[in-house]
Design a protein that fits this description.
433 residues; 9-stranded mixed β-sheet; 36% helix; 15% strand; globular
């Protein structure tokens, strides 16, 4: 209920743009599961979506034309004005921000053009810093698999758990572009934790924002931001940028709580409180690589879970229920054989393992030492792999933190890091010598 009181106070005249995230999140990020349960409480009957907003599955805007129009990655297919709100009751807009939902061109892991949705947020006040207004391509953390989880939708309903962090960036005068990623909002399965798809979606979201005429962001310098699933997206954007998006003037990347090696992540999650996240990743990989045939590995309990999970959002009653009912279960409880023993599955995971390419821009990578979802060692391995290849990496750990508090402690460090990159301040990472 801390969230409810905060949102209510912010919408009763205090002005969301004047409140920084650090004043708020201490009360609501006690744990990652706690976030899901608190937001779920807000999604009861009283929290009707503002403007009678249709969920993406019922909204023609999210259905791309067939075939896709000719164009380049990052091109806008369509756009429309939107309202960014943190008020789930009345839908009052965040002050001094103009918003557009967009549908744009990206690519899947096979290089096939696809349509991806997202949202672009731009402060209305003139940029007073040097050069053009900066743009942050913001990669969100785990939402779920259902289209109604898409941040371009939840940011217009007042029910997005990262909205306050986005507001903090807008307070700096930066524009923020948020991708829904492949299959979240748009038709088809969400390719959850398939890093190559997510990284492309983040880079093409930045391109789309810079090409949206109304936003006035042509020529804007770019930074990438992401934590948890967003850390995977940001990490892949960093690795792909030099070859895939050399046109983007990326100044720096923040990647926190990064699931860099899903083999290691899966081993840690099997039998844990958060094993539902591993099941979601299995669905995501099955969507990206149809030949993996996830259904063929499942028993009756697994098929029931799969059917129930396809439209699940974690910050919903169904999502919280799934987290609780699957807690401490094992892969063997839902399968007749372990997909991770199959060479095809292992190859797909290996193809999306971070660390193979040195980012060409400065990176801040953060990690909670006692992260109960993302194993510390695989994150440490990533930073060492990048360093060994000559990347400029600033590596910071938080000893008294788990996954959600790691997100909180990372925020001020990420804000300072990105602020300095936009100011063209030199940075020398702390790679081991």
């Amino acid at each position: 209920m801390a969230v409810a009181r905060t949102v209510w106070g912010m919408t009763k005249g205090y002005g969301p743009m004047s409140i920084t995230v650090r004043h708020v999140l201490r009360a609501v990020l006690a744990s990652w599961l706690g976030v899901a349960l608190v937001v779920t409480a807000l999604q009861g009957p009283a929290a009707a979506a503002p403007q009678d907003a249709k969920p993406p599955a019922e909204d023609p805007f999210y259905r791309p034309p067939e075939p896709l129009p000719e164009g380049a990655s990052g091109d806008i297919i369509r756009s429309r004005p939107a309202v960014f709100t943190v008020d789930p009751f009345g839908g009052s807009p965040v002050q001094d921000v103009t918003s557009w939902q967009v549908l744009y061109r990206s690519e899947n892991v096979h290089g096939t053009p696809i349509a991806v949705s997202g949202i672009v947020l731009v402060p209305t006040k003139p940029w007073t810093g040097e050069g053009r207004r900066p743009l942050v391509s913001y990669a969100v953390g785990t939402r779920g698999l259902g289209d109604s989880c898409a941040p371009s939708h939840t940011l217009t309903t007042g029910l997005d758990y990262e909205a306050l962090m986005i507001i903090d960036a807008l307070n700096k005068g930066w524009a923020v572009a948020v991708t829904d990623m492949e299959g979240l909002g748009t038709p088809g399965g969400h390719t959850y934790e398939v890093g190559r798809s997510q990284g492309k979606a983040v880079l093409n979201m930045a391109r789309a924002a810079r090409r949206l005429p109304e936003a006035g962001l042509g020529g804007s310098p770019v930074a990438v931001w992401g934590y948890s699933q967003g850390g995977t997206s940001a990490g892949w954007a960093a690795e792909l940028a030099g070859s895939y998006a050399p046109d983007l003037p990326i100044k720096g990347v923040f990647a926190g709580g990064v699931p860099a090696d899903l083999h290691a992540v899966a081993e840690g999650l099997d039998g844990s409180l958060f094993i539902a996240l591993m099941f979601m990743a299995a669905v995501g990989y099955d969507s990206a690589y149809p030949g993996l045939d996830l259904d063929g590995y499942l028993n009756d309990a697994g098929r029931e879970l799969l059917e129930n999970a396809r439209e699940m959002c974690l910050t919903s009653v169904d999502g919280a229920s799934t987290l609780l009912t699957t807690a401490f279960k094992r892969i063997s409880d839902y399968s007749t054989a372990n997909p991770l023993d199959d060479p095809a599955w292992r190859a797909a995971l290996d193809a999306n393992k971070l660390g193979g390419t040195a980012p060409g821009v400065p990176v801040l990578q953060t990690q909670a030492v006692y992260d109960q979802i993302i194993p510390f060692q695989q994150a440490d391995t990533l930073h060492r792999a990048w360093c060994a290849k000559g990347a400029n990496v600033t590596w910071k750990t938080y000893t008294l933190a788990e996954h959600a508090t790691g997100m909180l402690w990372s925020h001020p460090d990420a804000m300072k890091f990105i602020t300095d990159r936009f100011a063209d301040k030199p940075v020398q990472g702390n790679c081991p010598r």
